[in-house]
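@channel sequence for tomorrow's demo:
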Amino acid sequence: MNEVADLSVVVIFPESPMHVSDLLWSTLREDSPTLDVVVVVDGRSSPDVASVVRTAARSDARVHVIDADSARGRSAALAAALERCSASWVTVADADGLSIRGGYRALVASLQSSGSDMAVGTAESIAKHRYRIGRAVDGALDTDATSILLEDRPGLVSDDILCGKVMRRDLIRSLVHAEDPWLEELLVARLYLAAGRVDIVSRSVVFCRERPSKSPAAPMSSRWVTDESRIWAALAAAPLAVRQSYAREVISRDVLNPKALDLLAAGQERPDAKELVNDLARDLSTTSLSNLTIWKRWQLALIAMGHAALVDVARPDGRPIGVDDVPSFDSTPLLVDAWAPLGLRGEEDLRDAFIDRFVSRPGATSGDPDTDSDAIDISVIIPTYNVVHYVDELLESIRASVGVRIEIIVVDDGSTDGTQDRVLAHQRADPRVRLVRSPGAGGGQARDAGIELARGKYLAFADGDDVVPPRAYAHLLSLARRSDPDVINGSYLKFFTTSTWDAGTGFNQAYALPLENVTIETHPQLVRHRAVWNRLIRREHWQQTAFPFPGVPRSNDIVAMTSVLLSARSIAVSPLPAYVYRDRPGGGSMTSRAGSTDYTVSYFSEEATCAALVQQRESAPVTREYWAMVLNADAWQNIGKFLERRSGDRAEDRRVAEQIAKLLSRAPRNELRRLKAENQVVWALAADGRFNEARIMLRAEKSASTLNADQLIRALSAAEALPTIPRATIDSLSLKYLMRRFISDPSWRTDAFSPALPVLRRRLLDPNVPLAVVPHSLEERLAGAIVESDDVDLARQSISPPSAGIAATLRSGARTTLSGAMTGLRPGGVTRLVARQYRDRDRVRFPIRHFDFDDRTWSAEISPELFPRAGVWVIELEYEDSLGMRRSPLKIEEAANRFFPGRFQRLTAASAGKNRSMIRVRDSIVERVGHRASRITGKRG
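structure tokens (generated this afternoon):
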């Protein structure tokens, strides 16, 4: 009696003979769970594929073939396959993919233990680089879970690939209808909705050569809109959190995709796109789209109002149009919460706002502030220390300010280079300038002293070596008086000795367009820049909410500004430059001293306080934006500078490590996992005080070719010992920097690689999440050698090509066979013949036959019908030895046949020089006669 399978693997309409052969090979070698494989083929449209699958079915009773008409669609094929499945659990494999050893076993074991309806693993791409496939957001697939509901992890709804999942056969069978148009993303969404409970297995279970569910429809095309509308309709009864997660991801990933926007801009108005966007936005909250840049918010609003053709105007380098070309706007679709963060000015008309921002001059004000009153508008506070070469330029620029009543409070911190004399000269010439001596030490205490003396309604700050444009303060004050915000931000320019940088293009475009009546909640991009000098701040708000400036050498303004921004009831932004920051050459500026121990400790200490303030805010958009900025930009730059300049003193290293660990202790785990694998390791090693190893990984992230084996092995060994680093991260780097480097670089195949073997063996034999290697690859052979022995020679031999071809004999007759001795081959291992056409540049291989063998010989019956076409074919033997798959060319000798003349033989041995691994495939006699007749007829014509 046949054993009942635990799992049925379904493969629908494979297109590549070689790929489906590889898939069957990688799947059938599993001894647990017991399984059967149901392959649906179209023998008429893909005869090569059908031949390979039927050959596999004759060799293995677990393989079942269903012949179907591909014109009827994939839904009909899947429905037929599900009827043929014998197991109670089913998975639908990617026809071009590979099974990872132990992957299906882990999914089935989880289901048998939990009783859930579906288990979900992850898929990895091996198309060009190894990376995890799957668009589940918010870390939904990053950690194991048992018997959860979809609302427990709403981000699962964006996971739209069918492979890598095992579900109850009755569940998927109830959702598949033969007459339905095929849409894989819709089927996956229905599976998540219909499954009562779901298990998450965070390991990789399958490999894919390309993203399997990649829709042929371009985002925002008519077909794509139709497909997405079907999915959205299926989610109508889903919990609100699930719909919000899906809508937010589709909008940011697909609707606002640059190619999708180009498609919309190039076409006619699209009512279908308008309707879909409005449906998606209807359930979103005010902050759901907060992490979109202001440009993208406007583009989305245009689509929602039915003006998709204008999306290419709402760009930094947008298409120029005239005011008369702007149609009237019906803002009714924008009366839902999701559209609140556009940053309009009070009751500003939407069309006027569009014209102001994208058609006319962005950021123009309505005029200069009222100057009739004697009250001081702005107190400008300037801490100075030894800036004699720059302070005149700064004070002259501020004194030239027009349309605003200012006082200029210069607080000197004990300059010794004549700075005070220069300020006194300005004080004598202009009563608005006032010089005071700092009561303490450091720029922070100097600023605090200036704030105590300030009399203006608003505070402004400047550094002694920078410049303020003459109309900057008047422009910011106009915004202040119009919408009465607590903080008014301007853009700024940063200039170096050879270049200038415009902040309007940075900080996630926080300063790209004018904004009024916004908060840090609706525009969290504003948290990315926390210097004090490009803004006006209401003095009363500062006094109520800001922390005193600390007496630290570095980043003494980020805590105060973070506090002010988080607590501001209203914020305004102007895209016009309100400040010019000088990156001063030499060692006198704070920027130039970054990387020293004191400066690094100062920064991380202050950043940890900022992190605590953000954590207290409990705002998902602000948290996401803040940690993206810290881990990838501000803190990342600081750790990089420290690693480059550190002295190696243990006490100094300990001070820095303590502050880094303090900061990272507040970082959400999912934000850390968003980082590149190298960056994750650098952070973890630095927090543990392993700065030498952290510097190695930092250099590897930039250029691994400059590092030797000993350095990378030491760094990865240290990383492996840290429990804070996910195992998947260690696996990724072990593959990238150890196994693949050993395979690709002959200089690494020495005894110097020996220390890497224990690291790799531990990862390969991990009982929970073993390192996944690609089946039938040099990776797998090297892995087999590493598991078997600590011998570098064996590792080297495992990936070396066979020294000589395998002898084979071609015997022609009524039946044609290839045969040879079993020398070097493993009885019971999978063996097959593959062919590629001689001089084929793409080197596409076709599996043509599996072997029959006994203890001494192997043989395979071949026929011309196994080859896709006539011609000369290179024949290779693929076989398994103790380490995995190996491919070797054959040395073919043709046996003499007196009874079967060569001119009648369709398969004969061929050669090219010393290459004797070829077979010539001829057309049949009837076909040859037909070809000759056609040529004769053509000549006569």
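heads up for whoever presents: DSSP finds 30 helices and 29 strands in the chain.
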